[in-house]
Design goal:
- There is one protein chain.
- Helices cover 41% and strands 24% of the residues.
- It has 228 residues and is of the alpha/beta class.
- Strands 2-1-3-4-5 form a five-stranded parallel β-sheet, sandwiched between helices.
- Helix 2 packs parallel to helix 3.
- It starts with a strand and ends in a 6-residue tail after the last strand.
Amino acid sequence: MSKILLVEDDAELRHLFSRVLTKSGYAVTEAENGKEALDALQNEYADLIMTDIMMPVMDGYDLVRTLRDSGDQTPILMITAKDAFDDMQRGFVSGTDDYMIKPINLNEMILRVGALLRRAEMNNEHRLIIGSTVLENDSLTVTAGKESIILPQKEFMLLYKMAAFPGKIFTRQQLMDEIWGYENDTDTHTVDVHIGRLREKFRDNPDFTIVTMRGLGYKVVKSAGGSQ
């Protein structure tokens, strides 16, 4: 189930959008302004952000700019009563992905949300997300909260492979064949060494645990907070 962060200071409109999105199968978190939205993102991941522009405390422009400046590339749909080209241009320049003008056609809103999520999924083929932990294949980077770590290639590939199939048991030989190659004559004990290093690095990770299945192999298990 995709998670949407809905940022709108008009309570009646916010609740209407939330009901429609929930009926369409999305999990919705509500926020009244940009600051509340940033606070919410400290605690949970969002697959998409819908935000108004004109809000107290922190407006939509500042919210989007803050997210993009921090490297957050979550898809953003900006919703506003403003219809001037300059306002739309400012929204896209700040980093928004799509733009809708009030009054909102609710059916169109759902179509746009679905399109943005599909586009993001295509762009994220080399990204794996477990709760608030993000594994970036292209950079061998694992980001959990505000901390990022670049792993050696074999360690990253091991973690990525198991995390892509949470709960599935992989034997040492399967992991050797997958990561080191079928023709490699390295001892399978190498897998144990790499798993040990991964365990040490992610022992405090709140989203997953690497579990040893005695006599069988290893698996990654999502913690309750790591479910999506």
